Amino acid sequence: MSYFTNVNEIAYEGGSSKNPLAFKYYNPTEVVAGKTMEEHLRFAISYWHTFTADGTDMFGRGTAIRGWDHLSGLDLAKARVEASFEFYEKIGAPFFCFHDVDIAPQGDTLQETNKNLDIIVAMIKEYMKTSKTKLLWNTANMFSDPRFTHGAGTSSNAAVYAYAGAQIKKGLEVGKELGAQNYVFWGGREGYETLLNTDMGLELDNLARLYQMAIDYAKEIGFDAQFLIEPKPKEPTKHQYDFDAATTLAFLHKYGLKDHFKLNLEANHATLAGHTFEHELRVARINGVLGSLDANQGDVLLGWDTDEFPHDLYTSTLTMYEVLKNDGLGKGGINFDAKVRRGSFEPEDLFYAHISGMDAYAKGLKVAAKMIEDNVFENILAERYASFKEGIGETIVSGKATLHTLEEYALQNKPFNNKSGRLELIRATLNQYILGDL
User: 148 FRET partner, CA 20 to 30 A, in 32, 79, 101, 428?
Assistant: First the structure.
């Protein structure tokens, strides 16, 4: 059965194309900076937003029109698998991602839930035998069910903590079965509302213990996927423990976990943390933990996680600059953790949205590669920090300076000679590159 009968395989037609069901900038075989676009970008489709979400929001029921709407239970889950692989083939996606509850219905017991998972995982594995699309990462949803009202790995209830551990164990087994290249830990409710009833130390210790158990079990079963943590500052809890890249790094360092994890960073989460996406990427990159991306964007006029498809060329360009300077994403990729707007309810809208996002990142890749080739930012930084290449600056960078030598230099009362940061000129130059004039 075809669920997207009005759509053929999406082809690259170039920037002059008027065909809405064609790529304008994403050409998977085009070589940029020594690799094909497909190799650089490693696009992934999020199962939850694309095949499970129906447009429901806090004010109204779902609006999405899907060919599987009339089904329920395992029949619905099986239909979504069929639809998903049709979508991957037509959009040309090399990867997909899912939470456990996205692909299979929960049962009344853990045993029943795992049985449902086994049925759907076997079906996905069969489809993967003839598909080029692979599993970028999987994860466990430990935030939607009421049992996780106080968290999972940071729950105040030991029985809930145990259930979370069992769910992760099954998730690692599923990841190995399907050849996942990564496994993501997203603490949807790993946080707190108030310190008045929270033992923060115990909760963080317990979370670290759970991560260590996952490391140990992955080794036990021979699952060699890269482990990723996805920071988020707030929502649903007021204070999330993995607020941003820097906070998560501090946690990993404290508990001796840094060598086992990298970060899966999301643009909309950066916005909620009061950062730009490129800030979060830079923090991760300079600390050696930039692992994978969730590509979306938020609305700065709204205070929640809107998960819009990315179309901001400034962000996609600066994102790909960080990725290229990181020498790529390794096992990671660019997952569209994004949903069509509630008013975009027809099946074709899923294609329009992904085409737009893939084109935005393809354009960003080409612009970033050209800017690196021309040493645009590198030259700016070299000139701005030139004082650290010689004299007192060189002694500071080399570690030879002391407060005595700094005072001795300062007492010479030499002129400071600060230079303009020329931010407006830099932005104008960035505009020229994005517009293709340089």
Answer: 79
Catalytic residue among 40, 49, 100, 102: 102
What pLDDT is attached to residue 286? 98
Spatial separation of the C-alpha atoms in residues 308 and 337, rounded to whole Å: 8
Q: Rounded mean pLDDT of 22-33? A: 98
Give residue-wise pLDDT tens across range 169-204. Answer: 999 999 999 999 999 999 889 999 999 999 999 999
Instruction: Quote the pLDDT of residue 73.
Output: 98
> Known catalytic residue: 118?
no
Q: What's the whole-model pTM score?
A: 0.97
Active site residue 102: yes
